[in-house]
Amino acid sequence: KSYKIALIKGDGIGPEIIDEAVKVLDAVASYSGFHFNYEELLMGGAAYDITGDPLPQETVSGSLNSDAVLFGAIGGEKWDTLPREKRPESGLLRFRKELGVYANLRPAVVYDELANASSLKPEIVRGVDLMVVRELIGGIYFGEPKGRDENKGWNTMVYSRDEIIRIAHQAFKIAMTRSKRVCSIDKANVLDVSQLWRETVEEVAKEYPEVELSHMYVDNAAMQLIRDPKQFDVMLTGNIFGDILSDEASMLSGSIGLLPSASVGAKIGVYEPIHGSAPDIAGQGIANPIATISSASMMLRYALNENAAADKIDAAIKRALAEGYRTQDLAQFDAKEICSTSEMGSIIAN
Ligand code: NAI
Ligand code: MG
């Protein structure tokens, strides 16, 4: 059996972390009796430099012809002064939109092995296991009108009822496989769009009587995530609130370099770390590849239905951490063995 994987390495640390995920995927495939065919596709600054477009059409069609997309990260200062539609980040937004992956699943799990690596007290974070379900192709990142002139800039936060309904279903379905609690995040005390969000989520909730629904304002949620993160199971959010809260949640686990994500809801899913291209550490061989390796595990689970192989990867990550291996981002508290990006990848693969 063979799977076709579209590989998009991107910019900055993207190539370094994708290479490690491929190492681990090939290792697990050789044990599991299947095989991967990779097709490398361009996106972001790397694509702009070669083709003048941060999202060449080939990247979209190649992805649609694959079984799943494994994506690194894009962006960097070099491209920050380009007009917006030429910038790497526009390529990524357009990519998600063209594939139609409207649901971004971002698990934040605190590894027992790393409870001391968090910036928070171990008793606060030990046992955290939450999932941010973030709407990905609507909201203020896409709403019209948007623009700027010399003195003004504007964006619009728009959600239609249909967009809210489909992301809410994703959240409730996932909650059914977990602790059956959904906390929907909004700013309904101030924003009209949030009032519609809240009403619509309430309606969808009626179809899931076993799931307990609560609502929270986003500012309070930012605080509660630090005060008592274990209260959360599934957090249902719009695009911008989920972006911000999931970066915040990454600090519970110790490093943004640990957190994977899956962008789903369409025929082809995109599996990617939640972090960016980390230009400040690119090329030094110190990036943490675990977020990407863990995204590869989500790809096996959600896109390819290879749950046993996904379990193997998850267990290998835990074992590497239990044995004391740490990349630099995790090393400050309890490192027994500091390792490079590629050493960490090899240890997990082995
Ligand atoms: P970032 O997530 O790239 O980095 C934030 C901080 O976390 C940096 O100090 C970085 O060194 C560290 N970090 C990130 N990933 C790490 C890893 N695997 N191991 C160790 N440390 C890690 O966010 P930032 O700095 O705001 O953005 C940098 C560039 O990435 C920008 O061009 C931005 O637009 C782009 N970006 C791209 C995303 C994507 O491709 N999905 C998502 C977020 C930002
Ligand atoms: Mg972000």
TrEMBL record:
<keyword id="KW-0464">Manganese</keyword>
<keyword id="KW-0963">Cytoplasm</keyword>
<keyword id="KW-0520">NAD</keyword>
<dbReference type="Pfam" id="PF00180">
    <property type="entry name" value="Iso_dh"/>
</dbReference>
<dbReference type="GO" id="GO:0000287">
    <property type="term" value="F:magnesium ion binding"/>
</dbReference>
<feature type="binding site">
    <location>
        <position position="106"/>
    </location>
    <ligand>
        <name>substrate</name>
    </ligand>
</feature>
<keyword id="KW-0028">Amino-acid biosynthesis</keyword>
<comment type="subunit">
    <text>Homodimer.</text>
</comment>
<feature type="binding site">
    <location>
        <begin position="76"/>
        <end position="89"/>
    </location>
    <ligand>
        <name>NAD(+)</name>
    </ligand>
</feature>
<feature type="binding site">
    <location>
        <position position="219"/>
    </location>
    <ligand>
        <name>substrate</name>
    </ligand>
</feature>
<feature type="domain" description="Isopropylmalate dehydrogenase-like">
    <location>
        <begin position="4"/>
        <end position="348"/>
    </location>
</feature>
<feature type="site" description="Important for catalysis">
    <location>
        <position position="187"/>
    </location>
</feature>
<feature type="binding site">
    <location>
        <position position="134"/>
    </location>
    <ligand>
        <name>substrate</name>
    </ligand>
</feature>
<feature type="binding site">
    <location>
        <begin position="276"/>
        <end position="288"/>
    </location>
    <ligand>
        <name>NAD(+)</name>
    </ligand>
</feature>
<keyword id="KW-0479">Metal-binding</keyword>
<dbReference type="GO" id="GO:0003862">
    <property type="term" value="F:3-isopropylmalate dehydrogenase activity"/>
</dbReference>
<protein>
    <recommendedName>
        <fullName>3-isopropylmalate dehydrogenase</fullName>
        <ecNumber>1.1.1.85</ecNumber>
    </recommendedName>
</protein>
<dbReference type="GO" id="GO:0005829">
    <property type="term" value="C:cytosol"/>
</dbReference>
<dbReference type="InterPro" id="IPR004429">
    <property type="entry name" value="Isopropylmalate_DH"/>
</dbReference>
<dbReference type="GO" id="GO:0009098">
    <property type="term" value="P:L-leucine biosynthetic process"/>
</dbReference>
<comment type="function">
    <text>Catalyzes the oxidation of 3-carboxy-2-hydroxy-4-methylpentanoate (3-isopropylmalate) to 3-carboxy-4-methyl-2-oxopentanoate. The product decarboxylates to 4-methyl-2 oxopentanoate.</text>
</comment>
<dbReference type="InterPro" id="IPR024084">
    <property type="entry name" value="IsoPropMal-DH-like_dom"/>
</dbReference>
<keyword id="KW-0460">Magnesium</keyword>
<feature type="binding site">
    <location>
        <position position="96"/>
    </location>
    <ligand>
        <name>substrate</name>
    </ligand>
</feature>
<feature type="binding site">
    <location>
        <position position="247"/>
    </location>
    <ligand>
        <name>Mg(2+)</name>
    </ligand>
</feature>
<dbReference type="GO" id="GO:0051287">
    <property type="term" value="F:NAD binding"/>
</dbReference>
<keyword id="KW-0560">Oxidoreductase</keyword>
<dbReference type="InterPro" id="IPR019818">
    <property type="entry name" value="IsoCit/isopropylmalate_DH_CS"/>
</dbReference>
<feature type="binding site">
    <location>
        <position position="243"/>
    </location>
    <ligand>
        <name>Mg(2+)</name>
    </ligand>
</feature>
<comment type="pathway">
    <text>Amino-acid biosynthesis; L-leucine biosynthesis; L-leucine from 3-methyl-2-oxobutanoate: step 3/4.</text>
</comment>
<feature type="site" description="Important for catalysis">
    <location>
        <position position="141"/>
    </location>
</feature>
<comment type="similarity">
    <text>Belongs to the isocitrate and isopropylmalate dehydrogenases family. LeuB type 1 subfamily.</text>
</comment>
<keyword id="KW-0100">Branched-chain amino acid biosynthesis</keyword>
<keyword id="KW-0432">Leucine biosynthesis</keyword>
<feature type="binding site">
    <location>
        <position position="219"/>
    </location>
    <ligand>
        <name>Mg(2+)</name>
    </ligand>
</feature>
